[in-house]
From TrEMBL, chain A:
PANTHER family: ACETATE COA-TRANSFERASE YDIF, CHOLESTEROL RING-CLEAVING HYDROLASE IPDB SUBUNIT
Source species of the chain: Lentzea indica
InterPro entries in UniProt: CoA_trans_fam_I, NagB/RpiA_transferase-like
Pfam families for this protein: CoA_trans
Annotated family: Belongs to the 3-oxoacid CoA-transferase subunit B family.
UniProt-recorded name of the protein: CoA-transferase
UniProtKB/TrEMBL annotation, chain B:
Pfam families: CoA_trans
Protein name: CoA transferase subunit A
SUPFAM superfamilies in UniProt: NagB/RpiA/CoA transferase-like (SSF100950)
Record's keyword annotation contains Transferase: yes
Length: 237, 265
């Protein structure tokens, strides 16, 4: 299949976040991570559990297979069988994330959602981030408010910030000091471009190109998961 | 058995200046808006509001009712940010205790169990503790020795919740997919008030939907449409058009008085 879009590359990169997850609750926030989780469920990770964003666990055929109201989601968070993909108004060099406020928390220049579940998620189970517009305003040297906990503030036995998928690249923290590293750049993106759009120096070594979705994956994305092409609004090509 | 029926204004008559009021629901879902409206009509002030916040927060902030807000997030769901809440924060108009949403539940549970605190991992390493220095940690007395957050009880003077059905005695039922934390709000409070879409003699549906029993409730208000423009499924979905109108007026101080007057009716 041809004319593979950037959005489709991002969906496949989000699907790859769940590699090896098994019977784990995938909690993707935002369209592209949701498509990624569903794609993983339909291909390499058939054991993944997916919620409808309300209170039900659904099969790919939209059959209810479980009940998971918020109170039970909190139980799963503490129990740890969950991989959340959160958004981020800011994410920094060591994987701290901010969805609370820009500026001084006492009187912010811009109030955001609040801490939400970010502190609990990041201290309890695997967490990844999705950034639809990779820019120096989002990839900052240090976040204004630590909502999700990064490696330089990590405590306890279960902290595990896995990856950051953006519209330009896939990044992780697999370095000696857990500072952010470029894993792969999306086809058509240069390493220089990724660095230019990031406020801090990235670790760059053995960078590959993000894989293209397979024909099977493209078919699923285009005909089954997102036939109306909403993905292209979140990540224009 | 006691008949606990009362009006929304009678409920608000029980709320005194400076009290801590817990509001049930979640975001823009099953909020007790008829009871919130009654607060807006009243003279009560300086409230500490404890909520998984939706438009209840913006409306109360707009009316100057809030001294302090305890929350994990404020969102209208289909509209991410509430303009009135943003304004209240960005002008420093309210004091806040901003928590992780699991810490919030744990605080309610500690209050419900009459405990001074309960341990939780959430909060460690994050800035929750930095901006709330009153929150302490505790070390496990067992061999692991792990340090945990000692989440203090979030004790409420009053809980306000909205369910689908109730009887006159205070037993109450949710019919949607999620009970949210309305039972916990009631257990954490001294005075507990439930509004409902309809008061019934007997309940239809599985007994697991009977979220509140009459030990947990002091007053019942019949308020059809009482969740306002927030969702109260299966009785009704969120009124997205009215919510957009709310958010647009909230973002524009010239439009606000007109909306507020219409909204209070």
């Amino acid at each position: 299949m041809s004319d593979i879009t950037r959005a489709e590359v991002c969906v496949a990169a989000c699907a790859d976040l769940f590699a090896g997850a098994g019977e784990t609750l995938a909690s993707p926030m935002g369209l592209i991570p949701s498509l990624g989780a569903k794609l993983a469920r339909l291909t390499t990770e058939p054991d993944l559990l997916l919620s409808d964003g309300e209170a039900y666990l659904l099969t790919p055929e939209s059959t209810v297979e479980g009940w998971l109201p918020y109170r039970k989601v909190f139980d799963v968070v503490a129990h740890g069988r969950r991989h959340v993909v959160m958004g981020a108004n800011q994410v920094d060099r060591f994987g701290n994330q901010n969805i609370s406020a820009i500026g001084d928390h006492a009187k912010p220049t811009r109030q955001l959602l609040g801490f939400r579940g970010a502190p609990g998620n990041t201290i309890n189970h695997r967490t990844s981030y999705w950034v639809p517009r990779h820019s120096p305003r989002v990839l900052v040297d240090a976040v204004d408010v630590i909502s999700g906990v990064g490696y330089d503030h990590a405590v306890g036995p279960f902290h595990d910030v896995h990856r950051v998928v953006t519209n330009l690249a896939v990044l992780d923290f697999d370095t000696p000091d857990h500072s952010m590293r470029v894993v792969s750049v999306h086809p058509g993106v240069s390493i220089d471009e990724v660095q230019k759009q990031t406020s801090f120096p990235l670790v760059v070594q053995d960078v590959t190109e993000t894989r293209l979705p397979t024909d099977e994956e493209l078919e699923l994305i285009r005909t089954r998961l997102d036939p109306n092409g909403k993905r292209d609004k979140e990540v224009p090509s | 058995m006691r008949d606990k029926r009362m009006t929304a204004d009678e409920v608000v008559g029980e709320i005194k200046d400076g009290m801590t009021v817990g509001i049930g629901g979640w975001g823009s879902r099953r909020k007790p808006m008829a009871l919130v409206k009654a607060i807006l009509r009243s003279d009560v002030k300086d409230l500490t509001v404890v909520t998984y916040g939706g438009p209840d927060v913006g409306l109360l902030c707009a009316a100057g009712k809030v001294r302090k807000l305890v929350y994990g997030f404020i969102s209208l769901d289909s509209i991410p940010y509430d303009p009135w809440f943003k304004r209240a924060r960005e002008t420093g108009a309210i004091e806040v205790l901003e928590l992780d949403e699991g810490m919030f539940q744990t605080g309610l549970r500690a209050a419900a169990h009459r405990l001074p605190f309960l341990p939780i991992r959430a909060g460690l390493g994050s800035d929750v503790l930095k901006y709330a220095p009153e929150l302490k940690t505790v070390r496990s007395p067992y061999d692991d020795g792990e340090e945990l957050v000692a989440m203090p009880a979030l004790k409420l003077d009053v809980a306000l919740v909205h369910l689908n059905r109730a009887d006159r005695h205070g037993n109450a039922q949710y019919l949607g997919p999620d009970p949210y934390f309305d039972d916990l709000f009631c257990l954490a409070a001294d005075r507990r008030y439930v509004s409902c879409e309809q008061i019934v003699e007997t309940f239809d549906g599985p007994p697991q939907t009977l979220l509140l029993n009459r030990m947990m409730v002091d007053g019942v208000v019949e308020a059809p449409g009482g969740a306002g423009f927030t969702s109260c499924v299966p009785d009704y979905d969120r009124d997205e058009a009215l919510q957009r109108e709310y958010a647009e007026a909230a973002a524009d101080l010239e439009k606000w008085p007109g909306f507020h007057e219409r909204f209070l009716g």
